[in-house]
Amino acid sequence: MTEENKVYVNESKFNGVSALTVYGTKERDKVKWIARQFFRDEYGHSPSKVVAEQKEHCINENEWEVMVADHSSGSLKKGREYEV
Question: Which domain holds residue 48?
């Protein structure tokens, strides 16, 4: 896995909405794709809505907050590196 293709996804979940923190890319479309792919891999289906905003005033300019609306239930996954 090259450094260019390495991101970190951390999930927290409340009332059908998950908040993901994604590190390692500058492109909003790629961040949203990563969130969708993460859900497909972890839960077996795609989320219904993905919204990504780059964190402001952050040391790491490649840090994003991603909100994912999902209508499924399930336990949270531990944070991990995720290859794209």
Answer: 3-72
Q: How many domains does the chain have?
A: 1
Residue 52 located in a structural domain:
yes
Contact 31, 64 (CB under 8 A): yes
Looking at the domain assignment, is residue 28 inside a domain?
Answer: yes
User: Mean pLDDT in the chain?
Assistant: 76
Q: Which residue has the tokens 């994604």?
A: 22
pTM of the model: 0.67
Q: What is the pLDDT of residues 1-17, one digit of tens each?
A: 455 566 677 766 655 67
CA distances from 50 to 3, 41, 57 (A): 25, 16, 22
